[in-house]
Design goal:
Layout (H helix, E strand, L loop, with lengths): L6 E5 L4 H5 L12 H17 L8 E3 L3 H13 L8 E2 L16 H7 L3 H7 L12 H12 L6 E5 L1 H11 L17 E5 L2 E4 L1
Parallel strand pairs: 1-4, 2-3, 2-4
Antiparallel strand pairs: 1-5, 5-6
Helix pairs in contact: 2-3, 6-7
Length: about 200
């Protein structure tokens, strides 16, 4: 079996909901000022990782925070900011009716809610939401289409699902990984590392 092409994964920059600890999921929240600085930093990091930035292929989640991150990073690389493709399958895991709430607010409604999810985080489905296992099924057909190196701008949940799909990390450990903003997560040779 031949090695998969390298994926240079970028999580969107910070939003105000990230700062507040609100579950964003697929709610379309814009970047905040720090998030825009992080996106520019990502452009500089990608300049060191890409052999030929002008020839790089970009695929982006259609949510506003990922598109803005991609556009700022591409501008920092001297590229046409809007010359990228989007794919709905790269949208964040949906938290359903939990979106917009903090964990503290959800615990007030149901003190056991966070504990229940943490016990089976990979398979847990929030009300009207999606589990990591479901997200992985959504991503599988997309992963199978990757035949050349890609820059992917997406979300923390998608990064965790890709860790489970593309590396040796156990599926139950993947949802517990920190996914940094303003850095590049490189998937290659069945491993991942941060740049």
């Amino acid at each position: 079996m031949s090695a998969r092409p390298r994926i240079l994964f970028v999580r969107h920059g910070e939003t105000d909901w990230n700062v507040e600890g609100r579950l964003q999921g697929q709610t379309d929240i814009p970047l905040n000022p720090l998030g825009r600085i992080q996106a520019e930093d990502v452009g500089r990091r990608l300049a060191k990782l890409l052999d030929n930035p002008a020839q790089s292929k970009w695929l982006v989640s259609p949510l506003g925070r990922t598109r803005e991150t991609a556009e700022i990073a591409r501008r920092a690389l001297g590229l046409d900011p809007t010359s990228y493709d989007t794919d709905d399958r790269l949208k964040e895991i949906t938290f359903g009716s939990w979106e917009g709430f903090t964990w503290a607010e959800l615990r007030k409604k149901d003190p056991l809610i966070e504990t229940s999810r943490n016990q089976q985080k990979w398979d847990y489905v929030p009300p009207k939401g999606e589990s990591y296992a479901m997200l992985t099924e959504r991503l599988k057909p997309w992963v199978e289409t990757i035949v050349e190196e890609r820059v992917v701008v997406s979300h923390g949940g998608v990064a965790r699902a890709l860790m489970a799909m593309l590396t040796d990390i156990p599926v139950h450990d993947a949802p517990r990984q920190d996914i940094w903003q303003g850095r590049v997560l490189v998937f290659e040779n069945n491993r991942f590392h941060w740049h």
